[in-house]
Every structure is written in structure tokens, then in C-alpha cells.
Specification:
The protein is α/β, with parallel strands linked by helices. The chain is built from 15 helices and 14 strands. The chain is globular.
Length: 402
């Protein structure tokens, strides 16, 4: 390919995005990358000099800024410093990393666990390490981009089935060669829609066709189950998921990701997954914060009870005001707007009334399904949720959604 033409193509791609962002800013439609300057306790934050109520956070249990978690991070810096000595395989492993992985394994009722530097990398490396050419990987159509990228990177035959359609999954998996390695992977809670995967049926299919099952629990830990342990606890199906993936940057207010499972699986990933072998270790403060977070979840079960109550109030109240919240069953609450422009207009009204909520538009979601992707937290108070719903309802009436 001609180098000049290649560079021109790249330049046009860059220019197209720059122009789109500039146009959104001119039309007062750009609400991304807004810096939070201060935590104000509970669910309140300072943004652009204003105190706003946070409805875009992944901190479902309100653990960001928790004093026990903050102190654990501070103590780790005092003991270990701010970084490590390299990759985990060589000089980068601290006793703190091993303790964190033991804590995760116990929390997820698994034999062992391994941690990585981000949730995205965790999915990418786990999937591409476990399956390859000649194998089959089956993925829900609404799975997170990190799952999709892991499937594509693996080189395995990549099959996507209709969202939460177990009959479609079974048809696909039945058509694969009986002797081929098979991996089924899905989000436990879907990040754009808030609904829950049909784990009982999926487990039945995987067992019938001798397939491995991987669950991405980024949005289910701290959200599903009586003690917040996730989807296996939610369905009372402990031991049915082979590969338990999760993040350390959502309910857990740190950074990183993990895989929990059988000891042999974890040993294999430690010695075969490129993201473990070639990435620097988690910083001490982040490892300590993550470890303390799992302990706080178990020590403060009222947070899960409060989250469930707030979720019911928010979903029920929005539906009662006439909104379509799609299929959500969890703290992720889509407020369907339809057109991208409508989602921007509702967001603009919410932001001007001190609600930090964000739009999700095409191509992140299909054209015509633009929405607010609102999240409710355990730290929200009833009166604050009522205010938020009233503000969104005002915008809904102004834009003709309701």
C-alpha cells in the first residue's frame, strides 16, 4: 500500500473524530471526560465548581472514599512504596499480592485466583490463552468489548448468539465438532442494559456439550447475591462456573481484574497468559485497597440491602413516571430516549440540575436505542432518588419521551 495514501486514510479517521467531538461541544452535547474535583461524601461530588449527585458511578456499594479502604492503601504505601520491582513472575510479587488473591478466592468460593492490571486486559488475556485455532468460543451478542476482543484475538472460531437466547446458544454449540474445545462466555450483568444472564440454562447447556463456562462479573460482584458474591450466589449454583472473572475497579474501588477458579487453571494462567507475564504488578496501594474492599463488603451487609432498596425505588419510580427502563433488574438502569439527540437533551437538563448522568448513543448502542445509562448506589438517599427521578421526568416531558 502506498505510504502517503495510508497516512491520508489515518488522517481522515482522526479528523472525523475530532470534528464530531467539536460539533458536540458546540451544540452543548459533550458530557464526557468531565473531571471530578472532590468527593463530598455519600454520592455527592464536585464537578466544574458545582456539587452534583452522582448517577454514573460503578461504585455500586458506595465504597469510594471508605475510611478503612483509604487507610489500607495509605499503610501499603508506607510499607512498600508506590510501585513494585517489575512483573509478577520476576521481582514484582509482594506478599500483599498473594494475600489479595487468597482473599478473592475465598470470596468467590474458588480454589485460587490470579490478578491482572485491568479488567479489560483480564478478559483479553484469559480468553486468548485458553482457546486458539481450531477451538470454538461462544459469546452473547451484548457482551462487553473486552470479551469480544479476547474472542477475536484468540484465533478460535468466534460465534455470537442472540442476547440471552439459550436456544440459539444450544443450536450453535450443537453444530460445533464434538471433539473441539468449547468456551462459552457471557457477562453476568450486562453493562448497558442491566439484565442478568440466564445462568441455570447456560450451565445446563455447557454441561451437556462439555463446554467450559466463563462469567464476567464486573457488574455483579457487590450487586448480586445476599452477601454480594455474585451470580453463583444469586442463583444458589456454587461451583457451576469454571472461570470466574471480575474487576477491581467498580464495586471494588481500586484497579485491576482477576480470574478465580481451580488451582490448575490458575497455575496455567500464571505461566501462559501474556498479560501476567509481561505486565507490571499491581501497585501496593491498589492491591491493599482491593483486598480491604472485599472484607468491607462482608462486614457491612447493610450496603447490599440498601442498594437493593434503592434499585427497586429507582426502577419502579422511573417506570411509574412513564419511562422505558428496558430489561434491567439491577443497579444499572437504562432510561430509553430513542434518538441520540434526545439522549443529549435529557442529559443537558439533568446536568444543569446537578445530576451527574451520562448518555450512551450510537454506535455504542444500536441507532434508535440511545439512552441515559443511570446507576443507582447504596449511598443514595431516598429523597435524592426522588429528586433525580423528578428532574429526569421534566426532561422526558420536554422532549416528548413521556
Amino acid at each position: 500500500m502506498d505510504l502517503i495514501k495510508s497516512n491520508d486514510i489515518v488522517a481522515r479517521r482522526v479528523a472525523a473524530m475530532v470534528n464530531r467531538v467539536a460539533g458536540m461541544k458546540e451544540n452543548d452535547e459533550y458530557y464526557y471526560n468531565m473531571p471530578v474535583t472532590e468527593l463530598r461524601g455519600g454520592s455527592k461530588v464536585m464537578v466544574d465548581g458545582r456539587e452534583m449527585e452522582m448517577y454514573a458511578s460503578y461504585s455500586y456499594l458506595g465504597l469510594v472514599g471508605h475510611p478503612r479502604i483509604n487507610k489500607a492503601a495509605q499503610d501499603a504505601v508506607a510499607k512498600y512504596g508506590t510501585g513494585t520491582h517489575g512483573v509478577r513472575t520476576l521481582a514484582g510479587t509482594l506478599d500483599l499480592h498473594n494475600e489479595l488473591e487468597d482473599t478473592i478466592a475465598e470470596f468467590k468460593q474458588a480454589e485460587a485466583a490470579v490478578t491482572y492490571t485491568s479488567g479489560y486486559v483480564t478478559n483479553l488475556t484469559a480468553i486468548s490463552t485458553l482457546v486458539g485455532r481450531g477451538d470454538y468460543v461462544f459469546s452473547d451478542k451484548l457482551n462487553h468489548a473486552s470479551i469480544v476482543d479476547g474472542c477475536m484475538t484468540s484465533g478460535a472460531k468466534f460465534r455470537r448468539f442472540k442476547h440471552n437466547d439459550m436456544e440459539a446458544l444450544e443450536r450453535m454449540i450443537a453444530s460445533a465438532p464434538a471433539d473441539a474445545a468449547k468456551l462459552v462466555v457471557a457477562d453476568a450483568v450486562f453493562s448497558m442494559d442491566g439484565d442478568i444472564i440466564d445462568l441455570p440454562r447456560m450451565v445446563e447447556i455447557c454441561q451437556k456439550y462439555d463446554a467450559w463456562l466463563m462469567m464476567d462479573e464486573a457488574h455483579s460482584v457487590g450487586v448480586l447475591g445476599k452477601t454480594g458474591r455474585g451470580i453463583e450466589e444469586h442463583f444458589d449454583m456454587w461451583g457451576t462456573v469454571d472461570i470466574k472473572m471480575g474487576t477491581l475497579s467498580k464495586t471494588i474501588p481500586s484497579v485491576g481484574g482477576y480470574i478465580a477458579g481451580k488451582k490448575d487453571l490458575i497455575t496455567y494462567l500464571r505461566h501462559a497468559s501474556r498479560a501476567y507475564i509481561f505486565s507490571a504488578a499491581l501497585p501496593p496501594a491498589q492491591a491493599a485497597a482491593a483486598m480491604e474492599s472485599f472484607k468491607v463488603i462482608l462486614d457491612e451487609p447493610w450496603r447490599i440491602e440498601k442498594l437493593n432498596a434503592n434499585t427497586d425505588q429507582f426502577i419502579g419510580g422511573l417506570k411509574g413516571r412513564g419511562f422505558d427502563t428496558m430489561m434491567t433488574e439491577t443497579a444499572i438502569v437504562p432510561v430509553l430516549c430513542g434518538a441520540d439527540e434526545t439522549a443529549y437533551a435529557v442529559t443537558r437538563h439533568a446536568q444543569k440540575n446537578n445530576l451527574f448522568v451520562l448518555p450512551v448513543v450510537s454506535p455504542a448502542v444500536p441507532v434508535g436505542l440511545a439512552r441515559l445509562r443511570a446507576t443507582v448506589l447504596a449511598s443514595h438517599e431516598e429523597k435524592d432518588i426522588e429528586y433525580a427521578m423528578d428532574v429526569i421526568a421534566e426532561a422526558g416531558k420536554d422532549t416528548g419521551i413521556i
